[in-house]
Amino acid sequence: MDSGLETSRQSPRFASRFLIGAAIGSGTTALAAERGGADFLLAINAGRLRNMGAPSIACMLPIFDAGPLSRRFAREELLAQCKIPVLLGVNVWGATFEPAAVAQSVLEAGFAGAVNFPSCMHYSRPMQQILARAGRGIEREVEQLRAVQDAGLTSIFYCATRTQARFAADAGIDMVCLNLGWNVGGVLGHRSRSTLEEVATAAREIGRLIKRIHPKTRFFLEGGPIATAEDLGRVLSLAPIDGYVGGSTFERMPLEDSVADQIDRFRHASQRRAALDRASARLVVWSRRFGFVGRSNAHLAFLRRLRSMAGAAEPVLLLAEKGLVQTPTLNALCGLKNRERWKDVLHVDLAGEDFPARARNLLFGHRESTAKQPPALADSSVALLVIHAPERLPAATQKRLARALREGVFRAPGRRRSLPILPRVVLVSEAPVTAGRETESLLGAGLEAELVAAFSGWTLRLPPLRERIDDLMAVIEAQAFRSLGVEVARSFFTSAALQHLHAHLWPENDAEVRALLGALVPRAGDVPVQLGELSALLHQEGGEVSTSRTEKDRIVDALWRHGFNRSRTAEVLGVSRKTLYNKIRKYGLDG
Question: What are the Sigma-54 factor interaction domain coordinates in residue numbering (predicted)?
Fold first, then answer.
């Protein structure tokens, strides 16, 4: 093997090249890093512990002897398989301090050099002072790396402060890496204490100091708020550095995402769509001509009822929660195919009407205008008359409309003869409705009992998105293409983000999907949408929701959606299994 980075560093093709180091803990990751173009590897105990499922910070705990742990996996998994230089993590906390002997052992083992890890730079300042007084401080780490270089190898020095960087530059250490703290991001990541701009400012100052003292020293960054390539690009635009060392960013975080996403894809593939019976398949094909998407059980049940009503001429009361797309349903009731023009559909929207009483004149006509313009209820040019927010009609007008719909005729002002109702009438109400208590809910919202009774047997409830959550990706894909002209697939989201989307209640239904896509689609980069990006974009469930669903309802829905797998249900609800079990017993769901 090459004796180290010494040759590479002096080679013309590396003279100004931006170097990438990977601090990893397994042969699998090392080979992937090598294929990805990493210039060198760091074999440190933090990497090994990450592969055991622990966070990087566990490397500072007295759970393993760092030296033998790092040396063993580096020799067996890295040196045996990788062609790029490997630098071994060494520390100065042994019973004796013999830098020359350590350097010789690193050389004889075949490593390209060494790195001071674990390092006292991760400790607090008082602890660093205690170690320094004991002869095991940062100065000894610099001395150890200097001995490694004197043995003909190379070294990289981790530092956290300007003073520590100066020690390394004074000693002529080949590479200095400013460690910005433990990495943010991922499942086990830490919270950021610094912004990228603050990091860039510190890097610019320390980098200049190092170059003034020892111009040949290469200056690197690692850790902190730099979690993506885009983050590094922002720092590079503000501070000149010679390279980057990735630990969790190259190992833990990609592994968390890739393994989770891969399992999610296999799970999605294994959940083969149940073969629809012939009638259901024809129903789905029929619904597509009007603009519907989806095939969940709740959606199919709705389509069956809709199709039975579509061919009739009876008036219909459509119950649709806030934010639901109503156009496909109205298309079907009118017989219009998707994208056909609405020449013969008249909408009367009372939701934004300051004087809803004026709708009476539009519907039944006015003495002064009836001769010129027929009432909407008797207009032969209108095939479908859609009245939105009918609960806002005055009580007398509601009762008059109920009588007209029941009898099929009405008397317009100034007319002696009754006029037949020509268009099909659809009332659309977004009033909150409790399942099983629809009549009481509608009466409470302001609809008159006579008008509610007029639609007995002809009431159609559009299922909210939370009840057809299995159609969520189909809804997202269709909405993205229709509204934004882009294609969005499952790979647009990480598995954790998808789980969160499926657990969300979607209180604003399709409107919330449209708003979410509008915020996410223009985002830069090819990185899938992360879980953390969704919290600020989704409607907070603690706010006002136009549904009376209880916690019990949500638990029952989640249990159904996940095949009564309690572990999976607890995960998507964001509670522990014990908490879920307690709630199941509380609501009597364990029988």
Answer: 292-522
Residue 574 has pLDDT above 80, yes or no: no
Q: 367, 414 in Cβ contact below 8 A?
A: yes
Cβ–Cβ < 8 Å for 62, 189: no
Determine the Cα angle at 93 with ends 41 and 250, to 5°.
25
Whether the predicted model's global pTM rises above the 0.85 cut: no
Average pLDDT, the chain: 83
Tokens for 420?
A: 């037949």
Q: Which two tokens stand for residue 146?
A: 């200097």
Q: Please give the helix or strand (H or E) that residue 319 lies within, else none.
A: strand 316-319
Please write the tens of the pLDDT for every residue from 391-441. 988 889 999 999 999 999 999 887 788 999 999 999 999 988 887 788 888
b/e sequence 522-534, b meaning 16+ C-beta within 10 Å: eeeeeebbbbebb
> Biggest alpha carbon distance in the chain?
115
Question: What's the token pair of residue 305?
Answer: 């009822």
Q: How far is CA 250 from CA 35, 60, 166, 267, 277, in A?
A: 13, 20, 28, 25, 48
Amino acid (one-letter) located at 109: A
Distance between CA atoms of residues 297 and 467, nearest Å: 9
Q: Which residues, listed in sequence order, are joined to residue 219 by a DSSP beta bridge? A: 176
Which residue in 450, 364, 459 sits closest to 415, CA to CA?
A: 364
Report the distance separating Cα 469 and Cα 512, nearest Å: 14
Report the C-alpha gap between 566 and 379 in whole angstroms: 57
Q: How far apart are the two ends of the chain, measured CA to CA in Å?
A: 67
Of the candidates 259, 249, 214, the residue with the CA atom closest to the CA atom of residue 229? 249
Tell me how far apart the alpha carbons of residues 251 and 43 are, in angstroms, rounded to a whole number: 13
On whether the 5-254 domain is CATH 3.40.350.10, my answer is: no
Structure tokens at 543: 């706010």
Residue type, 63: I
Here the tokens at position 99 are 């830098």
Q: Are 118 and 66 in contact (CB under 8 A)?
A: yes
Res 184 pLDDT > 60: no
- The CATH code of the domain at 278-461 is 3.40.50.300
**Shared fold status for 5-254 and 278-461:** no
Query: Does the pLDDT value for residue 374 go beyond 70?
Result: yes
**DSSP assignment of 327-381:** HHHHHHHHTPPTT---TTEEEEE-TT-S-TTHHHHHHH--TTTTTTS--GGG-TT
Most confident of 218-222, 249-253, 565-569: 218-222
pLDDT score for 371: 61
pLDDT digits (tens, 9 = 90+) for 489-505: 888 888 788 888 988 99
Nearest by Cα to 327 from 339, 314, 343: 339
d(CA 523, CA 529): 9
Q: Where are the domains of the chain?
A: 5-254, 278-461, 467-586
